[in-house]
Amino acid sequence: MKRALLVLLILALGIFTHADEKLTCYELRTYHANEGKLEALHERFRDHTVAIFEKHGMTNLIYWTPVENEKNLLVYLLAYPDKEARTASWAAFREDPDWQAAYKASTSNGKLVAKVDSVFLELTDYSPLAAFPVTGTAPLYEMRQYTTMESKLENLDARFRDHTIGLFEKHGVTNLPYFHLADGQEGSGNTLLYFISAESEEARNASFKAFSQDPAWKAARDASEKEGKLLIKKGVQSTFLRTTDYSPIK
After folding, report:
1. Cys bridge to 61: 32, 50, 77, 199, which one at CB 3.0-4.6 A?
2. CATH architecture of the region 23-122
3. Could you give the residue range(s) of every CATH 3.30.70.100 domain in the chain?
4. 137-190: per-residue pLDDT in tens?
C-alpha cells in the first residue's frame, strides 16, 4: 500500500513539474486605456476576458495597475507553452463568439483601449521563481527594467546571479521572476526585466537603503565594473504596481 502511494506521489509530482516546464513563453502586455475608460476595461477583463483567455489555453499569471496611474494603464502577464501555442490561442480567442459579444457590448460608447504594448519574455537561468506566489497579503510589487551598455548583459546577469539576488533577500526584498527579452525584439540583447515585492513602499525604501550601504554590495558592484559601467545613463526604470481585484495572484 505504501509503495503504491509512493508511486502515485512520484507520478503526480512528475505531472506538475512537466506542466510547469511547458510554460516557456511569457508575454507582458500593457493597455493604454482611453480617457475615462479604465474602469470599463477592468470590468471587461473581470467579467469576460480572463476566463476566455483560460478557455483558449492561456495562463493568466498576474494583473496590475501602476500605483501612480496618470496614463490609465493596465499591465498583465500571460504564459504559454511556446510562441506557436500563443499564436494559436490568440487566433481562437479573437474568433470566440463570447469574446466578440463582450467586445461589442463594451465598446458601444467608444473603444476602451488606445494602444497595446506587448513584449515577449524568457526566464533567466537564475530566476528564483517561474511564477508569482500566492501571498494573501497583496504586497507592493515593483517592476524594474535595466538597460545595459553593449555586450554587458552577461556581466549584469553574473552580478545578479552571484550577489544581488542574495543581498536583496538579506535586506527583506522578495525576489520574483527575472526575465530577458526574447530574441528578435528591440533591446533583447541588453535588457533585464524583473519583479520584486515588499510589504509597503516604506519597507521597500528601507530595504534598498540597507542594500545600497551593504559592503558586500559595494564590493560586488565595484568588481563588476572594473572595466566600465554596466548600465547606460538612466538605465534603470522602476514602476510600483498593485494587483487588480480580479488578478489570479494578489
Report:
1. 77
2. 2-Layer Sandwich (3.30)
3. 23-122, 126-243
4. 889 999 999 999 999 999 999 999 999 999 999 999 999 999 999 999 999 999
Specify the 3-state DSSP secondary structure of 18. Answer: helix
What digits encode the pLDDT tens for the residues 175-194? 999 999 999 999 999 999 99
| Residue whose C-alpha cell reads 535586506 in the numeric block | 171
CATH architecture of the domain formed by 126-243:
2-Layer Sandwich (3.30)
C-alpha cell at 10: 512520484
Residue 46 clears pLDDT 50, i.e. is over it: yes
Contact indicator for 241, 75 with CB cutoff of 8 Å: yes
Phi, psi of 101 (to 5 degrees): -70, -40
The pLDDT value recorded for residue 8 is: 34
Q: Which residue has the cell 525604501?
A: 205
Q: Is 33 exposed, middle or buried (0-12, 13-18, 19+ CB in 10 A)?
A: buried
